[in-house]
């Protein structure tokens, strides 16, 4: 069966949200997180934890994983309506969704996410570290120590915490996939703390992959370019949102469903010889890896 292509999605409209990490239901147009493509059972019987799984890339990955046969734990901050919509879409494909509202910047909450998942599903096969925040600042003097610390707590400390508590329950063939960013390689003058955390994620991915290789547990990352997610209107003013993603070769931001396929590949047997690697679905941005 042919794959459904995302052709000429509705242009992004000027908009802004006043809270992080943003609400998907308030976006115009709504991001595309699913298509009519069938699943192929590539993750049958698997259980995945996805942080930031209520919306954006996390939502698309959760739904595509369900389509491929996985049950999913969705950890999210407090976007309850977005999380419920994601869970409903997962159940549409006959799979179970466990919703856990939690601030992943706190270690004890990450431990609890793992424990609740094990209580519900009895095992864990895939960890997707994806939750993130970003705060635009136009110079380094505007970045407070509190902002710098919180960005690191959400964007990289949480990845460490989630891996720390998940790894003891993983077996040969299981995998961890971390969400990095094109900013890890290109930088971003108004997202210095965010870009720094994404660079840290790349190094963490490569180091953890070496640590777990002998156990047969693979660790990889995905470094998207611009993607139409709630984090964008929650981070930028209206005029910048309207122009978002238009400066890359493909001329538009990705839809979340276009990024989710990278995670499916890395989590499935097709990616069985990938570890310590970073995939770059970035619309043609030139980077040095």
Write up what this structure looks like.
This protein has nine helices and seven strands, in the order E-H-E-H-E-H-E-H-E-H-H-E-H-H-H-E. The protein has 289 residues and is of the alpha/beta class. Strand 1, helix 1 (56-67) and strand 2 (71-76) form a beta-alpha-beta unit. The longest helix has 22 residues, at 145-166. The protein is globular. The protein starts with 46 loop residues before the first strand and ends in a 10-residue tail after the last strand. The model has no long low-confidence stretch (mean pLDDT 93).
How would you summarize this macromolecular structure in one to three sentences?
With 289 residues, this protein is an alpha/beta fold. The protein is built from 9 helices and 7 strands.
């Amino acid at each position: 069966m042919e794959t459904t292509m995302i052709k000429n999605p509705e242009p992004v409209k000027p908009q802004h949200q006043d809270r992080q990490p943003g609400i998907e239901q308030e976006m115009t147009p709504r991001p595309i997180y699913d298509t009519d493509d069938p699943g192929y059972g590539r993750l049958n019987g698997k259980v995945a934890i996805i942080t930031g799984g209520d919306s954006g890339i996390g939502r698309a990955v959760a739904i595509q994983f369900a389509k491929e046969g996985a049950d999913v734990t969705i950890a999210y901050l407090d976007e309850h309506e977005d999380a419920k919509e994601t869970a409903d879409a997962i159940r549409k494909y006959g799979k179970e969704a466990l919703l856990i509202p939690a601030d992943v910047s706190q270690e004890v909450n990450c431990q609890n996410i793992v424990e609740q998942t094990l209580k519900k599903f009895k095992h864990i096969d895939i960890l997707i570290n994806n939750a993130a925040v970003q705060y635009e600042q136009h110079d380094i003097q505007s970045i407070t120590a509190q902002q710098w610390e919180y960005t690191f707590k959400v964007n990289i400390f949480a990845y460490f915490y989630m891996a720390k508590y998940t790894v003891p329950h993983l077996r040969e063939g299981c995998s961890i996939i971390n969400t990095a960013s094109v900013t890890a390689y290109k930088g971003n003058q108004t997202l210095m703390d965010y870009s720094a955390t994404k660079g840290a994620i790349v190094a963490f991915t490569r180091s953890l992959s070496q640590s777990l290789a002998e156990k047969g547990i693979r660790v990889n990352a995905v470094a998207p370019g611009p993607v139409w997610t709630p984090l964008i209107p929650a981070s930028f003013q209206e005029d910048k949102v309207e122009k978002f993603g238009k400066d890359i070769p493909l001329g538009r931001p990705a839809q979340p469903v276009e990024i989710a396929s990278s995670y499916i590949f890395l989590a499935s047997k097709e990616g069985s010889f990938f570890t310590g690697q970073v995939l770059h679905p970035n619309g043609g941005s030139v980077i040095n890896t």
